[in-house]
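Database export, one record per block. Field names are fixed; values are copied verbatim from the stored entry.
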Amino acid sequence: MESVLTMKDNIEVLEEAFRQHALGNVKMPVRPTITLEESGGFIGYMPAYVGGGTNALGVKVVSAFRDNPTKYGLPLIQGVVLLHDAKNGTLLAIMEGAYITAMRTGAASGVATKYMARKGAEKVGIFGAGVQAETQLLAVKEVRDISTVYVFDTAPQKANSFQKKMSEVLNVKIFVVNSPKEVVENSDVIITATTATKPVFNGEWLRPGCHINGIGSHHGPGIRELDGTTVKRSLVVADSKEACLKEAGDLVDPITEGLISQDHIHAELGEIVIGKKKGRLKEDDITLFKSVGLALEDVSTALKVFEHAKKRGIGKTITI
């Protein structure tokens, strides 16, 4: 998959998928989820069909277990995608899902940043230095001319590894900083890609005109990366309003606390893509894209991988 899927391709694929979502050509139930408090685990089942000429049909099963890296030597996020033929339901492919999850999550933020961040945005701040942070940065770099990156992680060694790797990949200056405030006060685009259960920075620190991609902790009320001040100050765009109101503590908690109402969610990303609503109303708006991850992203990405793999003759044919 790494050999056939570029971030540029993935952003284009998801821009079209979100367009079809806004046009009513997507069938996508809100994912049923199971949370396992005793093991810090979460698993979700994510089916979708993207029509309108895309014809991507499939389901992803994805899990995130907090203790996997430290206790079991396993990735935090694991998953598998089943891709089906939209004409007859035949199973076309079984794909490892963690890579698709990381790429499509980055690509969704790439689409959001394209439409919501200021044109001259060039400094990026990142909370979290895992795989998701890498693909987030790859995506933002595709749509804005990024010169400088500030990264903060509660595990400094992870931030140092991220700095070394991504500096070489993107040829940009990356600084490991010692405090959340340094990230926020220096950045035009802020990315939160953590497993935090409490807000990672103070919303009072945000500069006018910055853009935020909130893509981390989102497994229900009480789990959040962003404080109420951040959300209240922001023009909020959701990947899916319905899904965010079910899963995104970043939005659900401020609503429950009475800081905002559901109407504070300005738009869904697809509405921005088709031009129904604007992603930024004023130059000094603080804009926030809240992503919980949608099955339309997975099946559209999987179809692109499948098409490229067939052309290049890679992968294995199996009989079940």
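Remark 1: The first strand starts at residue 26 and ends at 27.
Remark 2: The longest helix spans residues 97-116.
End of record.
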